[in-house]
């Protein structure tokens, strides 16, 4: 609430994620991606307000009370790979003890030997080195903390996994290992994955569909193959994200994203867009999976 005003961090976010599917939610920092994930798990600040509906099977998430969130949803129905893993790991306990506690709480595994073996297997899935299991979080690098947090998130085999920047701090080989493990995780039992990421190469490797977020709104939904290949994105912002990659045109998007408390009238991307016209002074609506007054039209649809 800058200056005492309420700010809408996420507005009109409509999407679904099916079993066996990965939806990659992409966009620049501050666009509302992590806020959306926190809302689904009831982890927003106490003064935050939510409206609308978010359903996981028969469960309505936004209206769930803390008891339901803690005992039924978090870990059991929704697993979370947090954006800042070091802040979510218990600092005074070893990684082994945290994995063993999670195994005992979320699975049917019983007995000290079996629980220990299951914890070690969880660490192995994310290439977490076994000789680091008895270390505390402060003794780990950022990449190792990320792998430990991922291992903890996978233990419960939740039907929905929220991965908030799961490749942060990892080198390229470990990025590919982590992404492939997440893909196996959802393929093995038709689980769903919502992956929030800045890493478009990781999104291309794993995603079935892509949702692009800008200034708190989803501006494009696309099949991943069409988004990263042909015909490509339709929203100018989406195209700008791809063109800013080093292995593509490497053309940065001019300007900066607007502050959520000071959005321009009409299309929020218009001040940075080379296709903007006077029409963009009015707010676009999501039509045909893109929210833009002047979307790019595929070549085969121009006749």
Net shape: globular
Uncertain segments are none
Portion in helices: 25-40%
What Rg do the Cα atoms give?
20 Å
Distance between the termini: 49 Å
Largest sheet: 6 strands, mixed
Helix-strand topology string: EHEEHEHHHHEHEHEEHHEE
How much strand content do the residues show?
5-15%
Task: Kindly describe this structure.
- Helix 5 (112-125) packs across helix 6.
- A hairpin with a 2-residue loop joins strand 9 and strand 10.
- The protein starts with 21 loop residues before the first strand and ends in a 12-residue tail after the last strand.
- It has 303 residues and is an alpha/beta fold.
- It has one domain: P-loop containing nucleotide triphosphate hydrolases (Rossmann fold, 3-Layer(aba) Sandwich), CATH 3.40.50.
- The strands form 3 sheets. It has a 6-stranded mixed sheet with strand order 4-5-6-1-7-8, sandwiched between helices. Strands 2-3 form a two-stranded antiparallel sheet.
- It contains 10 helices and 10 strands.
Secondary structure: elements and pairs:
Elements: E1 22-26, H1 33-40, E2 55-56, E3 59-60, H2 66-73, E4 78-81, H3 85-88, H4 95-106, H5 112-125, H6 142-155, E5 160-164, H7 172-188, E6 192-197, H8 200-206, E7 209-214, E8 217-223, H9 224-228, H10 236-243, E9 286-287, E10 290-291
Parallel strand pairs: 1-6, 1-7, 4-5, 5-6
Antiparallel strand pairs: 2-3, 7-8, 9-10
Helix pairs in contact: 4-5, 4-6, 5-6
